[in-house]
Structure formats: structure tokens, C-alpha cells
Design goal:
Layout: E1 4-12, H1 18-30, E2 47-48, E3 62-66, H2 68-77, E4 79-82, H3 85-89, E5 103-109, E6 114-121, E7 125-132, H4 137-142, E8 147-151, H5 154-165, E9 169-174, E10 176-178, E11 182-186, E12 211-213, E13 221-227, E14 236-239, E15 247-249
Parallel strand pairs: 2-11, 5-11, 10-12
Antiparallel strand pairs: 1-6, 3-7, 3-8, 4-14, 5-6, 7-13, 8-15, 9-13
Length: 253
């Protein structure tokens, strides 16, 4: 079960329309009072789980930017660093860090209820962020890097990493960019809405980990996430020479 901490939880009747969902989510996003009218410009920009259909397939090449010394080490020894959401929260460089990583609002709906939960999560996830597109020297430099490699088989690569860290689940997808990080999903009919617990993280599916705000849209991120059975906060450096079989250096066939 994914670790989570809940800062807000609101329970409403089922079958709320889009406008109501945007308004109530806007209350949480903007820290407004729930018993007062919500200005339209404070309505949240919401994302439905269905918007991620097909997004697990990259549109272009999957590029990992880094420094030459680290890429050399990866191809020679298999050394590779996997990050965490907390790790990316700490960076001041906006091209690498994101203060909101691992935090989001999820809206779960079924025939009985509509629930809104403001959640910080992802403390049992390792994350590997890539670029979905052609390697542009200007973009690479903006990240503070000087080199890159291509992941030519995303399934083989993610499975190799999963085996190396004994991951429970693999998720991978292009990121979707919105003004706000609000995911609306379908919740199982037997879900217990009456209990405020870490299970509220299950109101919506894993798509919540792939929503980023619009200021990061130029990053065209393709993201890998691995769930493990322990809480983690710090990044890990692994030895996974197997993963190099599914990658290639720049300017190589």
C-alpha cells in the first residue's frame, strides 16, 4: 500500500458535474473557505484518468540527459541513480526540482459518493525522469547537463530496474501538464469513504503521479516509477548493467 499523508478530505453526494468538481477542487487548490462562493477564476484545472489513455507510449525518442561522467559510469558498470519525490522537492533549479512533486488532489467517484482528498504521497516510489523528444543541445544545457543516452526499449529497461530493486509495481507514462494537479478517477464500489486513512490514496489510479503544472511543460517528460514495499525518502544508486542492454549512447547505432 502506498504511503500517504492527508491534509484535507471532503465527502459529497455522487454524480457531481464538471463545474462542481472544478469549484470544490478550486477551494482546496487556493485555500478558500468551503462555505463561500468560489470565483470562476479560482476553479481548478482538472484531469480525468481517461486523458492518460495511450500516454504510456512515447511519442518520440526517450532521452535521459546527464553529465558525461555519469553516463560513462552507467554504460561501464551499470551505476544509475533513481530519485524520489522528496529528492526532487529539494532542488531550487526548476529544471530539475519541483516543490510540488508527490502532492496532489484526487477526486474519487462511484455510485455512492464523490470524495476530494488533498494528499502528499509517493514515499515508497523511486522515480526516473526522461525527455520525450529529440535531444536539443539548448535543452540539455538548460538542465545543466552535457550529454545524454537513449532508452530504446522502455519495457526492457524498466523491468531490468524493477528486478534490481525488487519493485512491486512499474508505472510509466508521458506527463500531462495542467494549471493544477487534480486527478478525477473512478473509485471501487466497495471503497470505505468513512475512514480517513492512507487508503484515500486509492481514490484514483497511478495517473496522479504523472500530472505536472504548466511551467514544466517544455520538459516533455516521460517518467518511470517503481513502487517498493518500504518507505523511502532518499535517492538510491544501483548497479544494473542489465539495463544498459536497452539503451544506447548518442551517435551510436
Amino acid at each position: 500500500m502506498t504511503s500517504a499523508y492527508i491534509t484535507s478530505y471532503l465527502l459529497y453526494p455522487p454524480n457531481l458535474n464538471d463545474q462542481h468538481i472544478r469549484a470544490i477542487s478550486g477551494v482546496l487548490v487556493n485555500g478558500l473557505f468551503i462555505d463561500q462562493p468560489v470565483p470562476y477564476d479560482k476553479f481548478a484545472d482538472i484531469t480525468y484518468e481517461s486523458e492518460f489513455d495511450g500516454e504510456h507510449i512515447p511519442r518520440h525518442r526517450v532521452i535521459k540527459m546527464s553529465k558525461t561522467e555519469y553516463i560513462n559510469s552507467f554504460f561501464e558498470t551499470g551505476k544509475l541513480q533513481l530519485g524520489t519525490f522528496k529528492y526532487y522537492n529539494q532542488f531550487d533549479n526548476p529544471e530539475i526540482g519541483d516543490k510540488s512533486e508527490g502532492s496532489f488532489i484526487i477526486v474519487g467517484q462511484n455510485e455512492k459518493h464523490t470524495a476530494f482528498a488533498e494528499i502528499g504521497s509517493g514515499f515508497n516510489n523511486y522515480v526516473f525522469c526522461c525527455f520525450d523528444g529529440e535531444p536539443d543541445p539548448e535543452v540539455i544545457e538548460r538542465f545543466g547537463y552535457d550529454d545524454y543516452f537513449e532508452i530504446v526499449d522502455i519495457n526492457g529497461f524498466s523491468e531490468a530496474i524493477s528486478n534490481a530493486i525488487n519493485a512491486r509495481t512499474i508505472y510509466k507514462s508521458r506527463c500531462i501538464y495542467k494549471k493544477d494537479k487534480v486527478l478525477v478517477g473512478q473509485t471501487p464500489e466497495d471503497f470505505d469513504f468513512s475512514t480517513v486513512s492512507v487508503r484515500l490514496n486509492e481514490l484514483a489510479n497511478e495517473s496522479k503521479y504523472f500530472i505536472k503544472t504548466n511551467e514544466y511543460k517544455h520538459q516533455n517528460e516521460y517518467r518511470f516509477i517503481w513502487d517498493i514495499d518500504a518507505d523511502i525518502e532518499e535517492p538510491i544508486i544501483i548497479d544494473c548493467l542489465e539495463a544498459t542492454k536497452f539503451c544506447k549512447r548518442k551517435n551510436t547505432d
